[in-house]
Amino acid sequence: MLTREIRFSIDRDWATAAHGEDGFARAHPISNSWGGWPSAVGIAPYLVLQISVEGTPDETTGYLVNIQRLDQLLRQTALPATAKLLRQSGVNLTGELLIQQLWQALKEKAEWSVVALQLWTTPFLSYAIKKERSDMIEVTQTFEFSASHRLHVEGMSDEDNRRYFGKCNNPNGHGHNYRVEVTVGRPGLDDAGRAIALPEFEAITKRCVIDMLDHKHLNADVPEFAELNPSVENITMVIWDKLIDQFGSAQLRKVRVWETAKTYAEYAGE
Ligand code: NI
To answer: Could you give the domains of the chain?
Structure first.
């Protein structure tokens, strides 16, 4: 599998290009694909689109797909489609509707097997469609909480605990700023073009998870960890259990918890 990302905005110059989108692209060659192109002149949505394709690399070039062609396809498809939908729907355009349109358009044009498409509308909020379940649009929002914990197993000697858990066994605990990515999905969309109403999704997660964990000592303050070691693996599964039946017609699909910038645990059910 190969994954490639483009970053773009539908900015003032692009959206109002009187000479048509192809003409605009010719008149404004890509000047900064790292920061995003079109360049976000004025106040403009800034989007990140990732495509994953699968297949066997070419024997000679070693390429599964030439990323220049992948970029070209993404830009030629996503930019006009997004500009058109923004003009038509304005603020009523949802991430779900946009990724649904992009998935259809890219699937028709791609010469490769597209496995997944993911669209970020903020650095923390994304929408995804996957090949194995293409009727389902997944929404992932990021949350955070700060907590302290101590990794310690009652059944082990103090010395073994110290040896196994190291600094994490400090008797008075230590803290982390945890980041939690919650993914929910739903086959089809509601009348407003959503998989779930985002404020409701967030309120449920806050009520069921964040309020329970934020600024707490997990071992002492959270009953779930009275006897369960609050490792990032166990925290992830506790969060899953708290959310599994909370989202009505949308389903909980995945929970990812970042304990540090270098470690995360993920759980998607059995
Ligand atoms: Ni820790």
So the answer is: 2-131 (3.30.479.10), 136-267 (3.30.479.10)
